[in-house]
Amino acid sequence: MIPAAQVARISRAIPFWMSLALSPLLVIAAGQGGWWLILAPVSTWWLFIVLDAALGLNVENADPDTPEPSLRWYRLVTLIWFPVQVGTIFFLIWYATRADHLSVVEQFALFFGVGVLSGTIGINYSHELMHQKNRLERWLADLLLATVLYSHFRSEHLLVHHRHVGTARDPVTARYNEGFHRFFPRVLRESLFSAFAAERAMLARKGKPWTDLSNPFWRYWTLQAAFLGLAFGLGGGMGVVLFVFQAFIAIWQLELTNYVEHYGLTRKHLGDGKYEHVLPRHSWNAAHKASNWLLINLQRHSDHHYKPDRRFPLLQNYTEDDAPQLPYGYPVMTLAAMIPPLWRRVMNPRVRAWRQRYYPEITDWQPYNKGQNPLPR
Questions:
Q1: Strand duo 274-275 + 269-271: pairing
Q2: Handedness of CA 333, 22, 251, 98 (dihedral sign)
Q3: Whether the Cβ atoms of residue 220 and residue 196 lie closer than 8 Å to each other
Q4: pLDDT confidence bin for 115, thresholds 50/70/90
Q5: Which of 136, 200, 303, 305 is deepest in the core (most CB within 10 A)?
Q6: Nearest of 203, 114, 172, 142 to residue 305 by alpha carbon
Q7: What's the per-residue H, E or C state across 35-90?
Q8: Residue range 187-204, pLDDT digits in tens
Q9: What pLDDT does 44 receive?
Q10: Where are the beta strands (DSSP E) in the chain?
């Protein structure tokens, strides 16, 4: 175990700061146009695939009792990310809609890269921030999600996903044999409704209607409208189109990650709408060093579900004995998920082995595969 004094060193936090290089890379790409526009996906997905292969796994665990002040260099990168992201998005909207050297195709290629920034990094950082008790951090999470028009993710994630993961009530638990191209439209539809229903139910328990101003959806809609208005003010109609396009790319990446994290992993139905507690076995994990730098340890996913507010540098690694492991990091696995036959070839045997290991007594998996078990009470 890494002692708290070592965890606190800035040298251990610096690798998690590599994401900041993406913003100047996008500005350079915008100025050059052409093939420079592939810098963003190359420097995230492909570079980190290579780095994972070269650097291997990191199975070390930081002392989980490391005090909060010792984590300041880790926290800082998540705190400064919102101004970096919002500045990059809206500067490039202003620039791209006025740059004569960028064709329409190049504008969209550039904002594909912006979506890589706001999805691979921004939504991931918002996920870290929304789980914290600090009010500023939770506000930063809301602001980041508003820049990708997916504000309801906070409500869905905190009130639905963490409570009902591995059951039919959780839209983002991908079912066995459900290809991403079927999962994606389903989760876009269901997660919005489940998030709104969860907030409405919370208000109803307090004797308030959904229209009450304490409903966070009013905040979500206001922030999203403000960013759409800013995009229009800086770039007109094309500015709005580019803003919406980068948001779609960001959401696509988020849901690719959601698809990978729990594919085929279901909690046992105990009867009468009751399910076993969430366990480390209900999340796929990956200990690949470089992609965990990029994704601030998101791949240590079992521990995140065990202790959701544990800050990312303290998330614990689980071995094969405790939780299922992916053969590669998320950058490879999300690419594989876009090719359903390849995905099934890689993952379905692993799901079947997982079922045999943990639930040999279950002989009929059809209700789990089709989401037909009773909803959790």
A1: antiparallel
A2: negative
A3: no
A4: very high
A5: 303
A6: 172
A7: HHHHHHHHHHHHHHHHHHHHHCECCCCECCCCCHHHHHHHHHHHHHHHHHHHHHHH
A8: 999 999 999 999 999 999
A9: 87
A10: 269-271, 274-275
